[in-house]
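Supplementary Methods S3. Complex input for the magnesium ion-bound model.
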Amino acid sequence: MAKFSKEGIFEMTNKSLGLISGDDAINASVLKAVDRLNDLSIETLSGTLSSVNGSASRFLSEHDLVVFQLSEQKDADIVGSLRRQVGSKCTLLALSNKDISLSAARALKKSGVDEILPFPIGQEELNEQIERLTADMSLLPAIYNPQTEHLGQVISVCPARGGIGASTLAVNLADQLQGHTGIFKKKKKNKVAIVDLDLQFGTVATALDLTPSNGLLRMAQGGVTPDHTFLQQSMVQHVSGLDVLTAPEEFMPLDALTREQVHALIENLRQEYDYVVIDLPRALVEWLGAVVKATDRMLMVSDSTVSSVRQACRLIDFFAKERLEPPVEMVVGHEAKPTFRSGHHVEAKKALGRDLKYWLPFDVRNAKHARDRGQLLSQTSSSCALSKAIRTMGRKIMDESLLNANVRVGKIA
Ligand SMILES: Nc1ncnc2c1ncn2[C@@H]1O[C@H](COP(=O)(O)OP(=O)(O)OP(=O)(O)O)[C@@H](O)[C@H]1O
Ligand SMILES: [Mg+2]
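Predicted complex, serialized as structure tokens:
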């Protein structure tokens, strides 16, 4: 690892990782990650934090990063006592191959674990995390401060074919992610932004009966790298509480934005909002790479016909070029969740290499009713099947991200 010494000399420093695990799969994945990084040495101890307790404090004082397999409830106590003995210089990463409760994750964080990740985890993701956790903090961009950074989840909604209900999902999911609480559902748990990157045919403004802002057009024409002030000026607030960056009313070429601009846009929004929902165009454009890189969840909306599934596969392949494991989750539009999957569902799942996770029932009447009035489903027909399906989806995502929020401190682009 390179860094400047006090005298200003650029010098190399070696980092070391200590691994405490008795799980072959964890060992193999961590070894692979270390293999990929230059100047990172590794020492392994077979067992769990409690079984190697005698050696654990030496491990923490001798290594920059200690990765351990989470095994028992008392791991939090052990970490607490290790931190008291050796201080906080060493970074601790726990890998958990069991589901852990939110309170257990909190206890671990409080005791001094810096990061908890679920295992199995994609190899690329593990490599990135280990690279991040062993990076010299002084070399990280000034913007990154794991203690204060507020990093929201980026959820992109991507249609595999036209008119499948992707924008309807984006808008209403964003609404649900606000986490309405209180007797009249007036209180919101989360701050949510929705961005319409379907620059030419975006319908988010119409769906919410908002006057389109020309923020994205100004960004393209002026070559602006969006910052906090720019976003404040460009976002429109909807009565539901959602902050909206609409597609412009005037025509703009799809490739008028650059990858850097889109990257800055998303990173700025992630710092302000708990969720950033992005409605994507049905087109392959260069800046899409920046979206894919920053996305925590990509909801791909398709139907289960052969042609749409083929399109979805093409898109997944395109995203895979940007990211080894694009976080694509399949949403089947215009179809209620079947009790039994038919042959073509099984085929679709096989071709896509992932489950058909969410289902949005076909409900022209209520979808049209809301769209014609420029209102959310929660305002016009909150008890219809489509609204319920999106609400359930929102709750699932919030539950999962609540756990992740305690699991991940932050993320660097
Ligand atoms: N689940 C649904 N069932 C029936 N009709 C729907 C459903 N969801 C949306 N619609 C209707 O289908 C039309 C297209 O919806 P929407 O704009 O959400 O789709 P899209 O995939 O974003 O389309 P586009 O390709 O134009 O971006 C709208 O008129 C909408 O009211
Ligand atoms: Mg759309």
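The first strand starts at residue 2 and ends at 4. Residues 2-139 form a domain with the Rossmann fold fold (CATH 3.40.50.2300).
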